[in-house]
Amino acid sequence: MIMPGPLTPSKCSRYVKVFFRAFEQTRRHRCLSHSGRSDAFIRSFIAENTETTGEQSLTPELRLRLFTPNCRFWRERPELWPFDDPYWAIYWPGGQALSRYVLDNPGVCLGKTVLDLGSGCGASAIAAKLCGAAHVVANDIDTVAAVATHMNCELNGLEPPVCVSDNMIGSEPEHFDLIFLGDMFYDEVLATSLHSWLDRCIKTHGTEVLIGDPGRAQFEGHGIRRLLHQLAQFELPESVREENYGLTCSSVWRYHPEL
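RESULT FIELD:
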């Protein structure tokens, strides 16, 4: 996920909020990259400090390594965490809806080139690969997310997608048939920059854009909202509802700038 600043209480779940608040309090004392740490170390660290789960999500057929209250760093002193904040370790509701929609409608991805922007745990990229996408790129500026995505692909018996850690927003648009954005409209500044960049992608390559969001205020109140056509809405499982204040559903939208 691409994060311009700290999460605020309105942006994250009940349990996750407590977890990330502790991380924010020690941000300046932590190493913000994994420079000098091998992929083998990162893989071992992720394996030891996440739990393989997913059954209680909208996509119970996907297995993912995620943070749960059973994990050590849910209780451990945050300053001992060696990386940047682990947004890749949460299966956010918008990403759940997007992945569910793709799995239910495999023709959306079949034979296409797909970019999962702000890919986090890689669930939507995994869904695209399961549904026959010709080429999948998972983009997340946190390089640890790439390792997590590789591990999650292995859990699901898949070859990993191409993982890119450069910030692609604002860059020269590459040719993708389809772009996924799950839970990316949590910040007005980021939403505005996404709006401009997505317009360029559509005008340059005719790219289709699908957005997953549970209806957070930052999304509902942004001007881009009037340019979206709703494709599907999913009721969140009870456990996901309990973790997210006031969020009972999550939707998938198609971005139509010509509306």
